[in-house]
Amino acid sequence: MKSIEIKGSLRTETGKKATRELRNNDIVPCVLYGVQKDENGNPVATHFTVTTDGLRNLVYTPHIYVVDLNIDGKIVNAIMKDIQFHPVTDKILHVDFYQIDEAKPIVMEVPVQLEGLAEGVKAGGKLALQIRKLKVKALYNVIPERLVVNVTNLGLGKTIKVGELNYEGLELLNAKEAVVCAVKLTRAARGAQAAAGK
Q1: pLDDT tens, 34-55?
Q2: CA nearest to 159, candidates 111, 114, 109, 110
Q3: pTM of this prediction exceeds 0.85
Q4: Where is the Large ribosomal subunit protein bL25 L25 domain (predicted)?
């Protein structure tokens, strides 16, 4: 997995007025949930800010990254866990990061990449990717940049489901019956099938 450095600054003031002021200056409030726990067993949260520009390469990309968060000179390995956008302007409002514990698995969404020419496509069908990202649970250093699904043997009207996929060291968390990709019958393929059946 690629890594990306993001520079942030600790927040001294919280509250609605301070948050509004930050956003008006193109600065995004963020929270880092650490590996340390408080007395109630919850992850210790660090409030900090990042410029909108500083988040651009992390947010507007199909790739997944481990983030080297540099908060006032202190560097922490983290992943982006959650992001909130403005419902109208799509401006980034808030980002949550989770510090990586090298000994504990993390949950991430990984893009799916289809590989090969499906049998069903040769027969006139249309290949459709139904799930663009799969949710995986694994140690961060074994999570790949993408999950490759070979579709070479996929016939007309056939599907590949989550339950049929297997990747070493990864646990797939999506429903086993969820369809990842399918070769759909086109009108031309239906006509060819009907003609062949006569």
Answers
A1: 877 777 877 788 999 999 999 9
A2: 114
A3: no
A4: 6-97
